[in-house]
């Protein structure tokens, strides 16, 4: 493990000096006493409800014990009683900051189980929407992380762009937060010409906005002092603790599910995986900003290459038939009725499918007994796994850093507690 | 992608019970007594180098002789391949060795399995409930745990029930 006390010395170039107590010098110590401090569950920085019990020596953290579960809704148990189509709406409620990536991860798993491939246009639309969700998720992180550690302005800038995206999503599928846009076999609505035009306008203006965020933060002495050298984790430890996403890549480990196991249209477009060097919060900030740029790059390439055709397969027993056919065609009415009553029947077997969500590897495991609902559904949520490394990464830092350390994972408790 | 299954079979002839390939995934069933040994070898052997533990979970099969199936999803960051390890646990001996000594990240994952499914992990550094409260009674992801009928809410007579209250 990297010793936090030495990495903090790297702040010298910004004129910030953090005195590190010499453990052998006890002349100044009058009385030492460990203090147990409870933080949360209702703390504004927790983005949900999380309680952390801190063992403190003065202001230094000796141990941090997270207590989870305040947002536990039993999603996995609920899923065992619902049909495959109905579960899509449950996945919206996991990571509600970028709900569509959860839909995506889930429907990919069901499609793997069913052996379904979706039409090319659906793959591209899925990629575009997933990357827009990544942008909006990272913008949310950037704004709130800055807000949590005292830089309020950034929040207003990032939420300005996030609002544009959310309005686009609303145009696309009618919802602003819980979309249920992806369905097994495709997506529910096609991109309309005016959405594509609005998207192109957004992508044209967006690079200048990213520069705006960076001017607020990149050389901001307070931001740099509070993120550089904080929440450091070495590459070996990051892998051992199963960290994923920007949290892992900040330590320089090149693992991105989109590159390692390309799905949707990620294999057809050019983009790069940004990697960090120091494994601290500042590197993760740079990575997330670069990922926003790369996502914009992916979206604009996908818009250029967008193939024609349907955005969903049309297979009785897997997708709902088109509404206009249901009204006139007896067969379609029957298929619709059977879908609504019985849902999809999946073959017997088990699959695990990993998807790169903005927070890391979001995996779904489905065990099917051949019925119309999963026998067992397991969600591998990156936020939950990341909090497993919280104690390891928080030890040795000051109590004021705890908000930064918590924010460094981009945790959303809805996904963590499920 | 997954590694060559016969290699794993050859390396652990007495620990591996069965090997299956389905949906492009490799599943290896091992004896529960050997799980740590197999995991450590899979992590350390450069031919496999499964350095990354994706997830730990358990599935309940109430009618089976060995009721619980503990499942480990492993991934290799260098080699880009995955494998699923399985070990069966009996209900009357509901414990298995913890793999936290192999992957530190297994700590929370195993706590979750213990919390929701009731499988105990031996030599786990901190085996407590994680998502539910410490006082919680029962293991909700077990198949015999009903979705309705427990707690204060089930005493409301005006609420319809679908799977019947539990005495």
Layout: helices, strands, pairs:
The complex is a heterodimer of chains A (418) and B (167).
Chain A: H1 4-7, E1 34-39, E2 51-57, E3 60-67, H2 75-79, H3 84-92, H4 99-114, H5 120-148, H6 153-173, E4 182-183, E5 186-187, H7 193-217, H8 221-227, H9 235-240, H10 245-249, H11 257-260, H12 281-305, H13 323-328, H14 330-341, E6 349-357, E7 360-368, E8 376-380, H15 382-387, H16 390-394, H17 402-408, H18 413-417
Antiparallel strand pairs in A: 1-2, 2-3, 4-5, 6-7, 7-8
Helix pairs in contact in A: 3-4, 4-5, 5-6, 5-12, 5-17, 6-7, 7-12
Chain B: H1 5-11, E1 16-22, E2 25-30, H2 35-44, E3 52-60, E4 68-75, E5 82-89, E6 95-97, H3 106-117, E7 120-122
Parallel strand pairs in B: 2-5, 6-7
Antiparallel strand pairs in B: 1-2, 3-4, 4-5
Summarize this structure as a short list of keywords or feature phrases.
heterodimer; A: 418 residues; mainly alpha; three-stranded antiparallel sheet; 18 helices; 8 strands; B: 167 residues; alpha/beta; five-stranded mixed sheet; two-stranded parallel sheet; 7 strands
Mean pLDDT of chain A: 86
Strand order of the largest sheet of chain A: 1-2-3
Could you give the distance between the termini of chain A?
30 Å
Q: What percentage of residues of chain A falls in helices of 4 or more residues?
A: 40-55%
- Strand residues, percent of chain B: 25-35%
Q: What's the total number of strands of chain A?
A: 8
Order of helices and strands of chain B: HEEHEEEEHE
Major protein interface: A-B, 43 and 38 residues
What overall form of chain A do the CA principal axes indicate? globular
Task: Please explain how this structure is put together.
The complex is a heterodimer of chains A (418) and B (167). Chain A has 18 helices and 8 strands. Chain A has helices at 4-7, 75-79, 84-92, 99-114, 120-148, 153-173, 193-217, 221-227, 235-240, 245-249, 257-260, 281-305, 323-328, 330-341, 382-387, 390-394, 402-408, 413-417; strands spanning 34-39, 51-57, 60-67, 182-183, 186-187, 349-357, 360-368, 376-380. A 3-stranded antiparallel sheet of chain A has the order 1-2-3. In chain A, strands 6-7-8 form a 3-stranded antiparallel sheet. In chain A, helix 4 (99-114) packs antiparallel against helix 5, helix 6 (153-173) packs antiparallel against helix 7 (193-217) and helix 7 runs antiparallel to helix 12. Chain A is globular. Mean pLDDT of chain A is 86; it is low at 4-10. Chain B has 167 residues and is α/β, with parallel strands linked by helices. Helix content of chain B is 17%, strand content 26%. Chain B has 3 helices and 7 strands, in the order αββαββββαβ. Chain B has helices at 5-11, 35-44, 106-117, and strands at residues 16-22, 25-30, 52-60, 68-75, 82-89, 95-97, 120-122. In chain B, the strands form 2 sheets. Chain B has a 5-stranded mixed sheet with strand order 1-2-5-4-3. In chain B, strands 6-7 form a two-stranded parallel sheet. In chain B, strand 3 and strand 4 (68-75) form a beta hairpin. The model of chain B has no long low-confidence stretch (mean pLDDT 85). Classes of the chains: A mainly alpha (418), B alpha/beta (167).
């Amino acid at each position: 493990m990297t010793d936090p006390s030495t990495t903090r010395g790297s702040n010298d170039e910004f004129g910030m000096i953090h005195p590190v107590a010499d453990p052998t010098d006890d002349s100044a110590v009058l009385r030492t006493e460990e203090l147990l401090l409870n933080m949360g569950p209702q703390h504004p920085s927790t983005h949900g409800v999380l309680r952390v019990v801190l063992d403190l020596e003065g202001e230094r953290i000796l141990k941090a014990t997270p207590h989870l579960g305040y947002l536990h809704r039993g999603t996995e148990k609920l899923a065992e009683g619902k049909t495959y189509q109905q579960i899509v709406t449950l996945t919206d409620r996991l990571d509600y900051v970028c709900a569509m990536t959860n839909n995506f991860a889930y429907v990919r798993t069901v499609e793997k189980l069913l052996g379904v491939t979706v039409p090319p246009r659906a793959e591209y639309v899925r990629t575009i929407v997933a990357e827009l969700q990544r942008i909006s998720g990272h913008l949310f992180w950037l704004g709130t992380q800055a807000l949590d550690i005292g830089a309020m302005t950034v929040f207003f800038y990032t939420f300005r762009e996030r609002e544009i995206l959310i309005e686009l999503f609303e145009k696309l599928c009618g919802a602003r937060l819980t979309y249920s846009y992806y369905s097994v076999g495709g997506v529910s609505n096609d991109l309309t010409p005016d959405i594509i035009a609005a998207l192109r306008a957004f992508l044209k203006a967006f690079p200048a906005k990213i520069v705006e965020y960076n001017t607020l933060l990149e050389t901001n002495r307070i931001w740099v002092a509070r993120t550089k050298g904080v929440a450091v984790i070495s590459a070996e430890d990051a892998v051992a603790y199963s960290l994923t996403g920007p949290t892992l890549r900040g330590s320089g480990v090149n693992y991105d599910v989109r590159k390692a196991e390309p799905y949707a249209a990620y294999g057809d477009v050019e983009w790069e995986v940004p990697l960090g060097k120091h494994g601290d919060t500042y590197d993760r900030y740079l990575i997330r900003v670069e990922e926003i740029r790369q996502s914009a790059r992916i979206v604009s390439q996908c818009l250029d290459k967008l193939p024609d055709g349907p955005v969903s397969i049309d297979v009785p027993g897997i997708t709902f038939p088109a509404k206009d056919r249901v009204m006139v065609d007896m067969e379609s009415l029957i298929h619709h009725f059977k879908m609504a009553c019985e849902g999809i029947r999946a073959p017997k077997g088990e699959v695990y499918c990993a998807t790169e969500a903005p927070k890391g590897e979001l995996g779904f495991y489905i065990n099917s007994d051949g019925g119309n609902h999963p026998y067992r559904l397991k969600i591998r949520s990156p936020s939950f796994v990341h909090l497993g490394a919280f104690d390891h990464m928080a030890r040795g830092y000051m109590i004021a850093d705890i908000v930064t350390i918590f924010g460094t994972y981009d945790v959303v408790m809805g996904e963590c507690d499920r | 992608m997954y590694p060559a299954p016969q290699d794993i079979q050859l390396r652990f002839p007495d620990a591996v019970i069965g090997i299956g390939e389905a949906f492009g995934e490799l599943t290896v069933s091992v004896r529960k007594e050997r799980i740590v040994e197999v995991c450590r070898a899979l992590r350390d052997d450069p031919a496999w180098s499964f350095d990354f533990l994706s997830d730990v979970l358990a599935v309940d099969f109430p009618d089976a002789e060995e009721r619980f199936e503990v499942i480990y999803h492993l991934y290799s960051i260098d080699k880009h391949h995955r494998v699923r390890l399985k070990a069966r646990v009996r209900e009357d001996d509901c414990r298995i060795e913890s793999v936290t000594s192999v992957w530190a990240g297994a700590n929370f994952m195993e706590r979750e399995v213990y919390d929701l499914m009731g499988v105990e992990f031996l030599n786990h550094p901190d085996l407590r409930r994680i998502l539910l409260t410490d006082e919680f009674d029962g293991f909700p992801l077990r198949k015999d745990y009903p979705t309705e009928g427990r707690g204060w809410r089930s005493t409301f007579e005006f609420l319809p029930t679908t799977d019947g209250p539990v005495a």
